[in-house]
Write a structure and sequence with these properties.
about 35% helix
Length: about 500
């Protein structure tokens, strides 16, 4: 039993967290001029049809009114304002030098007019007429937009043709991998590096993606901001957050750099969503919510109260807070006391215990001594490798982010073939599989984004991933408001009496 549980924990500890490493925040010079606040706001309006201020922007097609997010500028005019022709309809070039060229414009339909300035451009957007008073194409929506938002949009259009994503050329995509350079997680990080280097070397040797090769750069997680700017990184793939989750989330948002698959037990999930963060596996928060959802569905726990107990460390507090919120949301009654006798007298039917392995064992012994037999719910990443008593047989449930059953024959064969070809050392299996999964998700998104690649098109491609099978993890689904690809947990029932491998109760979603 002891070995079975240990093997399960090793295989399933896909997400890794370490000691907090301070993040360098001092501003550094960059090879490209950063957008101003106004230009950044205008970029959001152009790309997504939404105002950072929260103002409504409405598009009109004849008498039909729709949110501008459904009729955003970039959808027709291109990510860089370059203009596109689709189904015989040409959406013009919106770069400011083109709009304002002194000799004006002659369109494929024969319509011609003089150059735009700010005032005439506003009339075109709002009223649908060009500088000579001609009506624009019917396919061009008319927009209701505030003066402030319009000023921001114009500010961005004046920069749009210079706002090129760093790390991206016709022949290369430069990606970053941030890892701890010292401490307990350094070797796990080095194991990740081995896998990602092999994976992208293999991809490059097969021609890359749309004739672009992947240029992998390695940086220290504690200096990720400087690294991103100095090396002009297009996106980050895999890596270990090593306690710097908040700092990395801030970097992703402020610099608009996608992070795909950073390994952590504390995904930085925000409301509104941080568009640039994509976690593959659940952290302790999602797993705790799944435990509560599972418990609420058990008939034997109906009409009873629960207790939520935790350690004072970050993982315990985070898991307990998530469990408390979810229990309140779905109507589970909670008791506030934590002492064994008081809990017993309260009639609590279940205990969610988010403490260390030793604290867990001590609590189970005390409950047995008090002749109290509630149901127990633990997180695999926090639980001990063995249980001190069999008194709670079939009453202990444990959540894991992934199981060996998530690894398909095809997925493992692909991983082993990479290992045999590039001879990297087989170590820190969970970390290596996590890196492998992140690389596969990244390449799947690149493939969907196509040759006309940008950070924005990569994010759109990632948001379209649904039920994606990496072959070595739970299936991954992202969306516009979903940034944890496998938001849930496997729930297992421990058979202590027979000392058998845990019985899986299924995948329980967190939402």
């Amino acid at each position: 039993m002891k070995n079975s549980l240990r093997n399960l924990c090793v295989l399933c500890a896909f997400v890794v967290i370490g000691l907090s490493i301070p993040m360098t925040t001092k501003a550094q010079s960059t090879q490209r001029e950063l957008l101003t606040a106004s230009e950044r706001r205008g970029k959001e309006i152009y790309l997504r049809g939404t105002s950072p201020s929260g103002n409504a922007i409405t598009g009109w097609m004849g008498e039909l009114s729709v949110p501008a997010s459904n009729l955003n500028c970039s959808g027709c005019h291109g990510m860089r304002g370059e203009g596109k022709t689709e189904s015989g309809i040409t959406a013009g070039n919106l770069t400011w030098p083109n709009l304002t060229k002194p000799y004006g414009h002659t369109h494929p339909t024969g319509r011609n007019h003089g150059p735009f300035n700010e005032s005439s451009f506003i009339r075109a957007v709002v009223n649908g007429v060009d500088t000579n008073g001609n009506n624009l194409l019917v396919a061009m929506p008319r927009y209701k937009i505030s003066a402030t938002d319009m000023a921001d949009l114009i500010a961005y259009l004046k920069r749009i043709d210079f706002d090129l994503d760093p790390g991206l050329t016709d022949s290369n995509i430069r990606i970053g991998l941030v890892l701890p350079s010292e401490g307990a997680l350094a070797d796990a990080g080095a194991a990740m590096k081995d896998v990602l280097s092999a994976y992208f070397d293999d991809l490059n040797n097969r021609g890359g993606i749309f004739s672009r090769k992947i240029d992998l750069r390695i940086g220290n997680v504690g200096a990720a901001q400087n690294f991103a700017r100095d090396d002009q990184v297009f996106a980050f793939v895999g890596g270990l957050s090593a306690g710097a989750d908040t700092q990395l989330a801030t970097l992703a948002r402020n610099e608009e750099i996608p992070f795909i698959g950073p390994s952590t037990l504390l995904p930085h999930v925000e409301t509104p969503v941080n568009r640039y963060l994509f976690y593959l596996l659940p952290g302790v928060e999602e797993q705790a919510i799944s435990l509560v959802n599972f418990a609420a569905a058990q008939p034997e726990l109906q009409n009873g109260s629960i207790a939520i107990i935790h350690s004072g460390n970050t993982l315990g507090v985070t898991a307990a807070s998530a469990a408390q919120r979810q229990a309140k949301k779905i109507g589970l009654k909670q008791v506030d006391t934590t002492g064994i006798n008081d809990l017993k007298n309260s009639g609590a039917k279940a205990v969610f215990f988010f403490g260390t392995g030793k604290e867990q064992s001590d609590f189970l012994r005390e409950a047995e001594a008090a002749n109290w037999r509630p149901y127990f719910f633990f997180l695999g990443v926090l639980t001990g490798k063995e249980f001190p008593t069999s008194a709670f047989n079939d009453k202990i449930y444990v959540a894991f982010p992934t199981l060996p059953s998530d690894i398909t024959n095809e997925g493992m064969s692909e991983f082993r073939a990479l290992h045999e070809k590039y001879k990297f050392a087989p170590r820190h299996t969970a970390s290596q599989l996590a890196a492998f999964a992140a690389a596969k998700v990244f390449v799947a998104a690149l493939t969907r984004a196509g040759k006309d690649l940008s950070r924005e098109s990569l994010i759109t491609a990632l948001e379209s991933l649904y039920d994606y099978d990496t072959g070595i993890s739970p299936r991954i689904t992202f969306g516009p408001n979903k940034r944890v690809g496998a938001a849930g947990a496997h729930i297992l029932n421990i058979d202590l009496a027979e000392k058998q491998f845990p019985t899986a109760k299924g995948w329980i979603t967190a939402y």
